[in-house]
Amino acid sequence: MTNGIIYQFYTDLDELNKMDKTPFLVINLLSLKDSEIPYLQRFEKSSFNVGTVTAKANELRYNDNIRQFLLQQLSAPDDSFIAYVMSDIYKGRKTQRVIDDFRPLVKRAFAQIVNDKANERLKSAMDTEIIAEPRIIEPQPIAPALPNIDRLEVFFMIKAFLYDCLSGEKLIYKDKDSQLEILVDDNAQKWLCRINYETNTFYINLQSGNKEHIKRQFRSLDNIYSFKNLLCQAVQKMRGATT
């Protein structure tokens, strides 16, 4: 079926000898994609084969359904999809709060994959080396507290570091006016570390026993790993104080 611009291709996948209600392929000549050209070539008189076209039609229909599902999850991942993603990377209870914490991480990972793939295609299309034009990054206003996404990153990093010495379910994070506080057993008296962000610099305060604490500064979230040993020591001292 066509109006001269949009061509809709149908077959009888749902019921033999009865045209399906939805087309398996839609072509718009005003926005023809390179990926659609091979499908059109299958309809050339010289190479037309009913069996081949029918098999490809079934593949196209499922492919389109999968594509639409992934696009939906890319823009607004639902709870069941978030839980599925978490199944191999998070061993704790998948409560609604945890699912909500993971949602922006999944969205950002999706966006990063799309961006990386686009960059790969762009680079492969270049025949000669071209010095990429520097990307202009707009300066961000200095805020007294960590951005929300950074809070989550720090929390999940620390949970991963302490996996061998403390169950992740015992850790929670709380937002205060100017800092991120990570507690053990949801007990305000058992804070493990406190992280602030001031003047483009991160600061971390760690428990060191006897109501004393250690304060360190770092420039990037990537540097959090360098505090792994201090965090483990803080957990051990906390356990010793409660035994």
User: How would you name the oligomeric state of the polypeptide chains in this document?
Assistant: single chain
Number of helices: 6
Strand content: 15-25%
Q: What number of domains? A: 3
Task: Chart the SSEs and their pairings.
Elements (H helix, E strand, L loop, with lengths): L5 E4 L15 E4 L8 H5 L8 H26 L3 H8 L9 H29 L23 H14 L9 E5 L3 E6 L2 E12 L2 E9 L2 E7 L9 H15 L1
Antiparallel strand pairs: 1-2, 3-4, 4-5, 5-6, 6-7
Helix pairs in contact: 3-4
Protein architecture, described:
40% of the residues lie in helices and 19% in strands. Strands 3-4-5-6-7 form a five-stranded antiparallel sheet, covered by helices on one side. It has helices spanning 37-41, 50-75, 79-86, 96-124, 148-161, 228-242, and strands spanning 6-9, 25-28, 171-175, 179-184, 187-198, 201-209, 212-218. It folds into three domains: 6-74, no CATH class; 79-124; 148-242, Signal recognition particle alu RNA binding heterodimer, srp9/1 (2-Layer Sandwich). With 243 residues, the protein is an alpha+beta fold. It is built from six helices and seven strands; from the N terminus they run ββαααααβββββα.
What's the gist of this structure?
This protein is an alpha+beta fold. The protein is built from six helices and seven strands; from the N terminus they run E-E-H-H-H-H-H-E-E-E-E-E-H.
Name the features:
5-stranded antiparallel beta sheet; alpha+beta; two-stranded antiparallel sheet; Signal recognition particle alu RNA binding heterodimer, srp9/1; 3 domains; 7 strands
